[in-house]
Amino acid sequence: MQCKGKRFIEIAVGLPVYSTYTYIAPAGETDAVLAGRRAIVPFGKKTATGYILGDASILPEADVKPVCDIIDATPLFPATMLDFFKWVADYYLHPLGETIKSALPTGDIPRRDMARQAGTKTAIGDAVKPDVPPDLTPEQATVVSDLSARLGHGFDACLLAGVTGSGKTEIYMRLAEEALRRGETALILVPEIALISQAEQRFKARFGEKIAVLHSGLSRGQRWAQWLKILRNEVSIAIGTRSAIFAPFASPAVIIVDEEHDTSYKQDGSLRYNARDLALVRAKMAGGLVVLGSATPSVQSAYNARTDKFAVTHYLQHRVNNNPLPDITVVDLRQVQKHRGARAFISDELFHALKSTLEDGDQALLFLNRRGFSSFPVCAACGETLRCRHCDITLTLHKKINAYKCHFCGFSLPATAVCNTCGSTAIKHLGMGTEKIQEAVQQLFPDKSVARLDRDTTTRKGSIARILKDLKNRRIDVLVGTQMIAKGHDFPGITLIGIICADLSLNFPDFRAGERTFQLLAQVAGRAGRGEKPGRVIMQTYNPDHFSIIAATQQDFKSFYDQEINFRKALAYPPFSRIVQLKISATDREKSRDAARRAGDACRDMKHGDPAFAAVEVLGPVEAPIPRLAGRYRWQILIKAPGANLLKQFISRLINENGAAIKKGNARLVVDVDPFFMM
Question: Which of 112, 209, 283, 580, CA to CA, is 20 to 30 A from 392?
Fold first, then answer.
């Protein structure tokens, strides 16, 4: 808006404020494209960084201050993304400025133009050799033909389900190829950094240097370099983890979400978005195609497919080359005779299978979704456990670093620590983790190479790539790992999978516990037998009769879904409702409880005081399953409603009318829309 020679612009400041503000643009910038650039603006008694949204539509009555400075010479994202950012901020009840700030790479743009430096190797260190596209199976060809025909004809959402090893990645590449042929762009999301190197190698082999990669493992300079390559239209394909959903393509023709069921797509930081859900929103805004792929689809996506909210569902029933699915043997740990020492957690069936596999020169993978050496250090004198000083959680012994460590806040004690209660040095190391399993296997097979893939072994840059490269090149005989090894990896030499304890995730206080257990077990089992030799899975469990475990052993998603969806419907859980979790915390126990009571009372007053909110259900407040975390005492309230709009109205009113009162006494209130982590 121009008035008296001044240009008024709308800016969202990168602070926790929900309004946008009007400023006067610098005189020399009146004719420049401003939207998408950062500005330094006066805000109260200080200055703040803001993001220019464009010309102000309404001139405020108060005096308008001028912008102090424009930081960027050109926009940092295309103007087409503004509506997307506004949708994200509105849906997740998050300030617009902080939403944009979360989407952009952190820090300043590096002076040296790293964006134009071309790489000839992947992150795994391998030189990229052009590949020859394989012949498609009849199933793949049908899918590629249908989805390719949908490109360029407006928004479509498709679920691509299929058994592990059925060739979904090749379908993704054919769709990207079709998008490039049309002069369009493609965005591919994967759930973990561990999968980036494999995806990058395959796509670079097919498309050369038309690829950009975005993930948190890059340095600030590298991430800006990749971001600018996309922004400048120097690449046509972007591959990345959840944050890549904000890749600055003007209008992606196809967005692919691989392993769409994975909880890693849910961000647990300040902006608590789900990248899978945002892929659907962004594709709809761009008039593009979105493909959600998984061998074990989420209940939400399967429900959307069955209720025709998606345009089409394709199911691949066979592995490429017609390789059979692995044979799965269930070992009931309740009936197993206990061994001591290295055999304590390895049943006879698994031990003999391991021995046979290694004698044949094949590789094995052992899965346990718990890292560390001992997860339950207990005093032999008084029976008390060693607990974190800041969290209500037991410490875990990590032998490699010779310390007890809290997996939530990072607090640690030396391995020589004594009992906090009685001072005894007699600490028994009960429980298990990947470190203990690795040590046990190395003792049982001392002449074999045993490696570990978990968060402890992958902290250094490039460590994931090195481990996976060693596995690929057969320098590792047995790989022990957490869920990082369960997702999408393709190593033909692995013929045996051992699942040490299939029950760990069943015990979480979360309505999705059964779903996560089924998905994790089915995905892990799918890593076996992807080469010429058939695969075998040994699944150890204390709950062999649980329907999630039975369905996973049979690789039967339909059986699992049919039982799970009835449970969800009976309790009105998603997909039959929408939920928001209110997380209330404070450093003082009483203040946290009082804040939770104020929040609960406010919710019930709103529900009973307005007929529009009659369908809203308020559960809680209750103490969180982990009552104290990082020194903060925690409570939570679950709000359920039939639809997202009603829920948003309820929470918005709660924040506007009661937010300040709830947060009295330095209490903290966090709103998590569509929560995944209920602990």
Answer: 580
Identify the bridge partners of residue 376 per DSSP, sorted by sequence position.
430
Higher pLDDT, 503 or 280: 280
Q: What string of H, E and C letters represents the secondary structure of 559-618?
A: HHHHHHHHHHHHHCCCCCCEEEEEEEEECCHHHHHHHHHHHHHHHHHHHHHCHHHCCCEE
pLDDT in tens, 626-679: 999 999 999 999 999 999 999 999 999 999 999 999 999 899 999 999 998 887
The tokens 């049919």 sit on which residue?
562
Burial 49-79 (b: 16+ CB within 10 A, else e): bbbbbeebeeeeeeebeebeebeeeebbbbe
pLDDT at 119: 47
CA distance 1 to 53: 12
- Tokens at 536, concatenated: 């075998």
The whole-angstrom separation of Cα 549 and Cα 541 is 9
What percentage of the chain has pLDDT greater than the value 70? 95
CA angle, corner 392, sides to 387 and 395, nearest 5? 30
The SS3 of residue 312 is: strand
What tokens does 142 get?
């049908």
Q: Say whether pLDDT at 123 is over 60.
A: no
Pair 52, 40: CB distance under 8 Å: no
Going from the C-alpha of 615 to that of each of 572, 583, 639, 647, the distances in angstroms are 12, 22, 11, 10
pLDDT at 61: 67
Tokens of 197: 């190197």
- The pair of structure tokens assigned to 132 is 């020859």
Q: Are 487 and 192 in contact (CB under 8 A)?
A: yes
- Count the helix, strand and coil residues of the chain and give each as a percent rounded to the nearest 5: 35, 25, 40
The tokens describing 73, both together, are 């010479």
Q: Residue 626: which of 587, 678, 591 has the closest Cα? A: 678
Contacting residues for 80 by C-beta, under 8 A, at least 6 apart:
250, 251, 285, 286
Query: 126: burial class by Cβ within 10 Å (0-12, 13-18, 19+)?
Result: middle
Reported as a single tens digit per residue, the pLDDT across 377-410 is 998 998 898 988 898 889 999 988 889 998 888 8
- φ/ψ of 674, rounded to 5, equals 55, 60
| R_g over Cα of the chain | 27
CA 525 – CA 543 distance, rounded (Å): 17
Can you give the length of the chain in residues? 679
**How far, in Å, CA of 370 to CA of 433, rounded?**
5
Residue whose tokens read 């052009």: 130
Residue 157 has pLDDT above 50, yes or no: yes
Rounded-to-integer distance, Cα 286 and Cα 458, Å = 37
Say how far apart CA 403 and CA 320 lie, in whole Å: 46
Under a CB-based contact definition with an 8 Å cutoff, are residues 650 and 606 in contact? yes
Contact present, 535 and 496 (Cβ < 8 Å): yes
The per-residue b/e assignment along 425-459, b for 16 or more CB within 10 angstroms, e otherwise, is eebebebbbbbbbbbbbbebbeeeebbbbbebbbe
Q: Is the pLDDT of residue 118 over 50?
A: no
∠107-109-113 over CA atoms, to 5°? Answer: 145
First to last CA, the chain: 48
- Asked whether 273 and 279 are in contact (CB, 8 A), the reply is no
Please identify which residue in the block is written with the tokens 């591919």.
Answer: 188
The pLDDT, as a whole number, for residue 27 is: 78
- Give the Cβ contact number of residue 636 at 10 Å: 23
Give 106-116 pLDDT, tens digit per residue.
877 876 655 44
Residue 332: CB atoms within 10 A of its CB come to 13
Mean pLDDT, rounded, of the chain: 90
